[in-house]
Amino acid sequence: MKEFEYLKPDSIKETISILSQFGEKAQILNGGTDLIVEMRDKIIQPEYVVDIKAIPQLNRITYNKQDGLNIGATVTLNEISDSKVVQRNYPILAEACKTVGSYQVRNRATLVGNICNASPAADTAPPLLVLEAKVNIIGPIGEKIVPINEFFTGVKKNILKKGEIVTSVTVPPIKDEWTGVYLKQGRRKDVDLATVGVAVVCIRDEIRIALGAVAPTPVRAFKTEKLLKGKTIDESLLEKAGKSALTEVSPISDVRSSQEYREEIIKVLVRRAILQAKGGHIL
């Protein structure tokens, strides 16, 4: 591992200043579960490592009925999955957080780090997509709020520019009664990256669907949602939904799975997730 200078700002303003000054020479240290591995393997070799864990306002979970849920950048996945507020109001997110890595990893890894790493297989991304979360960003020229479906730009790429950091993720309130489920297929039952991930949220006659690990970025399946909207769910429609979802993604063969296997699993998990979110009842 190449030598680097360790910096520990105690404010967002100081962090922005450091990132603006050093640009690509600096890397944010949050949970560190991805950064440390990439530094060890010499995938990246920053000259400055900027530890943001000492910034108080980044380590908060807040919720109210008007604005919804706000999760700070340094809140860990275990803190989210253990939060009664998240379990009660956004159970799909709490459950998805439990599927990331091992318990020890989740004690360090953060939701914001998971999305900023921008892996196509990020387990928190599909639930955030169907919950229509927003990413709160601060940089040298001010603050901006970006819908999660506009945040990912490619494999391990996002829209953040020089000097910008994600301070939190906001999940808006859902006014009506709803149900949701996140299903994940990996090579092993636990502690594995997703081969395919599918999130589904049902709100009245609306069904939202998002998929992970089957395209360069996590994908919201808008065409399939339109196919399902307002219709009675039966076996024929579930089969059509699985086939439709397949046309909205671009699965590949890699070390974890073949393209053909992913294509079959997409159809299976889309059907299963819709069925589970609907309470297992179809006509």
UniProtKB/TrEMBL annotation:
Name of this chain's protein: FAD-binding PCMH-type domain-containing protein
UniProt lineage: unclassified sequences, metagenomes, ecological metagenomes
Keywords: FAD, Flavoprotein, Oxidoreductase
Residue ranges occupied by any FAD-binding PCMH-type domain in the UniProt entry: 1-176
Organism: marine sediment metagenome
Keyword Flavoprotein: yes
GO molecular function, one term: oxidoreductase activity
